[in-house]
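Appendix C reproduces, verbatim, an entry submitted by the partner laboratory led by Prof. M.T., so that reviewers can inspect both the input and the predicted structure.
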Amino acid sequence: MIKAFDKDGYCPMKLKVIYLDKTHSLIPSQAMDRGVYFETLCLGSGVNGKQLLDLPRKRNGDKTVAQERIEMQAKEFVQVLSSHKMTIIDRDVYLEAEIPEHPGILCCGTIDFTSSIWDDVDGPIPKGIFDLKLTQTIYSQFGPYCWHFPHNMDHTQAFMYTHLWKQIHGEDLPFYYLVFDYKPTPEYKIVKKIVGKLERYELAESVRKTIEKINHHEHRGYFTNPMHENCRNCPLADQCPDVTRAKKIQSI
């Protein structure tokens, strides 16, 4: 939710029904479905127990090349665990706690899994927080999922999960992304996100800004903001009078 309210040009009404009222769900994109399918193959389910047992097939019923590569990476997942001396401890772990800087405000999140790992720098780690990711290529250099330059990405998720774990269990756990791709020569990478005092401050500030925006809309109303990026996966698209399918014209 924090990321959603942080995006420029977001639609307040769309975010209200998805994240605040929770009466609707975001319409999943092809990438989202592939991610859930991969998590189902590797861990048994995606977030909150969601499962996807197959992907859209070709007209003749055969699997697409993308699906075959994803399934190949799911088998590689088992080998990666062994190679890095990882033993999964818990899966689909729901966390809920307050942010000390904002008493009374509950934040929540669901960890993909916790596991031990042999860290190249820190040696044996008894338990860490892991987020399983699927992307087209780990060498992407642009957009929100530019895994070639992970230091340029938004890591609110890492900040939130490590904070919630500390609040609930009283211990600091390291956070890792376990990223697989499904390009013609599939690969994987493990990214450890360091979370310190500065990152915890960033999290508190992100929560403050989100609360501020929600309070603003509570007083001024949750209006619509029709634009292609908002409407294309909006669950209200079929009934919203302001919906648009037109893309924004780019001036150069």
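The chain has a mean pLDDT of 93. Additional entries are available on request from the coordinating office.
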